[in-house]
Write a structure and sequence with these properties.
- The protein is an alpha/beta fold.
- Helices cover about 50% and strands about 5% of the residues.
- The protein has helices at about 1-25, 50-60, 70-75, 80-85, 100-115, 135-150, 155-160, 165-170, 200-215, 215-240, 255-260, 265-280, 325-340; strands at about 65-70, 90-95, 120-125, 245-250, 290-295.
- It has a five-stranded parallel β-sheet.
- The longest helix is centred in the first third of the chain and has 25 residues, at about 1-25.
- The radius of gyration is 21 Å and the shape is globular.
- The relative contact order is 0.14.
Amino acid sequence: MRRFLVPALFTTLFGAVAVTLLNVTVDPFGVWRPASTPLSLWVTRDASYARLAKAHWLRNRSPDLVLLGNSHAGAAFTAEQFQRHGLAQAPFNFSLVGASIAEMLATMQHAHFVAGTRRFVVTVDLLNWRTRPAGSETAVAMARGEGIYQQLFHLRNFATTTFSLDATLRSLLFLRSGYIPTHRADGFALRCEDNPANWSRLLRSSRLRRNQFMEQRTQWLAGTAQQQAAFAEMLAFAREQDLQLLLVIPPFHVSYYYAMQAAGLWEQHLALLGHVVGEAHAPDNRERVRVVDFSLPNAFTLVAPDSPGTAGDQPLAWWVNADHFDCALGERIVATLADAS
């Protein structure tokens, strides 16, 4: 028996060490060295695993402000904007692609309990309020993300990021993506989008969003009650922990309105907007929660006569597509938030 156990033990240890060295060296999920370039362009660091990486990065930082939201907030803001306008000296961007209200609550709790953060900028829009078909790839990724923040990162996820078959296959360069580095250790994007939209791109993205709205309309309508409950829980958590919240309704291009109207979701957007504002202005929340709305027609979405790339009255240079904006518009938003604070 001993002649069998000793070689088996050494083989197991050797294999564990080899896999650890391989996966930490390649870093297939961008966890250990966030801004590093993988050893090969065949390694992918997809959006779902940003949930693992950002939770890990935050453990080693003490941000005085955390930005929460989905991809709208993930790519259009920089740490330097918050520093330049005096909103924060050490901000952290915990925005995650496709984040739901429930996941934003989990990230807020993680940031507060792990890093001691007491100030949050929370971007909230229609895309945060939908449900997802159970068992879908997106639903599984989101559920994994929503669950990890309640546990110590290394205890629960070290095995996932180091020993899992998924990590090992990526490190062995079996999965191709054409990877480009995306995030710094403070969660912000390495660089801003440098491809401004044109009319054809805006119309195309608006048409795709309209089709998505129409296909997933029932998911938005069905998810309202669930996400409203999570939003109420978020505000209750802020009251209990005496946190300061600045709620931001982000802008989107005017063509986005037509997409929502065509899909019959414009009234849903207004109802959710009214719910957010109403809850934030409730007497229990008035001292610690503020709302700044950029989503209705205003200078950010409609008119910018001095903006480069303007066609007619549309500031095309501010937009990547119908719902994502670039860092030039992000700069103006942060300046407005600083004035509102």
